[in-house]
Amino acid sequence: MGFSYHKSGMDCRRTCLHFAILLLLWNTTSAQIRYSIQEELKIGTTVGNIAKDLGIDRGTLADRNLRIVTGAKQDLFQVNGRDGALFVNQRIDREELCGKSIPCHVNLKAVIENPLEMHHVTVEIVDVNDHSPSFPDREYRLEVPESTMTGARFQIEGAHDPDTGVNELRLYKLSQNEYFRLEVENLSTESKIPFLILQKPLDREITSRFMMVLTAIDGGSPPKSGSLNVSVIVLDANDNGPVCGQQKYTVSIKENVSMGTFLLRVEAVDLDEGLNGEVEYSLRSKFRSKISELFELNNKTGEIKVKGHIDFEENDL
């Protein structure tokens, strides 16, 4: 048993045509050119000369229709068909094109006819230090209980710098103060997280608020920076007891004094704030029941008044 295969003339012509097209494409894609420019160059700035770099006679360019093919919506570059100069056609923002990616390349195709040639052109966009580090907000409020132990860490939301390489965010600095120091955790080359570290016990009654400035600095030359105002509010702990203005109060009254007569006012102060700083007064004595019959104490104001009948012979307190 045998097998035979027959190819028609049409099939042969189709195969030859495909081969010719592949051969043509192979011949036309004959070179690759690389240029490197900084972002934000002025429109019209020359990047390089395609004709010169490919060794094409400039005198023939007028008849060969030299052009750039990008496939992008925006034509960042154009070529002068008369002299072969590749130039900036629109504003180039490296961060908009590539974000944090390194390197940042724009790939073009230079097409020239008679005969047909196609060459790859790669333009590297180099970052310039056109951004300053910036924080999400201008101010940051941190509430810390005064009972917090030294060594406690408080994370601050870090700054962001769209620039890359040497121009990206490099370090943080904290304004000088004796209670907090700065630590920076490097999660990656692009992510640096600042922390405040408590290094001295807090006392709200001495200092209830701290104002500091956290500064983010990039590696540009000259460097650029951004600042964050940090406000640390020390929350009260009930660490103080009421203190009277004097240790002993003395008052003399006559017997048969009228009920409701004002005798004195006890004053005490608690350095804590809020509910922790509120003071209530009460009378304590081994004759408490008898005292309560004769005198009335306002537990809010500390005022003591006569409540009952005062008789020297009957009352020995």
Which tags fit this structure?
mainly beta, Immunoglobulin-like, 3 domains, 4-stranded mixed beta sheet, 12% helix, Cadherin domain-containing protein, cell membrane, membrane, cell adhesion, Protocadherin/Cadherin-CA
Task: Walk me through this protein's architecture.
The chain has helices at 9-28, 50-54, 94-98, 288-294; strands at residues 29-38, 46-49, 67-69, 77-79, 85-88, 105-112, 117-126, 139-145, 153-155, 169-174, 180-188, 191-198, 209-218, 225-235, 243-244, 262-265, 268-269, 295-297, 303-306. The chain is mainly β and 317 residues long. The chain folds into 3 domains: 9-126, Cadherins (Immunoglobulin-like); 139-235, Immunoglobulin-like (Sandwich), CATH 2.60.40.60; 243-306, Cadherins (Immunoglobulin-like, Sandwich). Mean pLDDT is 84; it is low at 1-8 and 15-27. Strand 4 (77-79) and strand 5 (85-88) form a beta hairpin. The chain starts with 8 loop residues before the first helix and ends in an 11-residue tail after the last strand.
Q: Count the helices. How many?
A: 4
Query: Biggest sheet, strands in spatial order?
Result: 1-7-6-3
Q: Residue-averaged pLDDT, rounded?
A: 84
Low-pLDDT stretches: 1-8, 15-27
Shape: rod-shaped
Number of domains: 3
CATH architecture of the largest domain: Sandwich
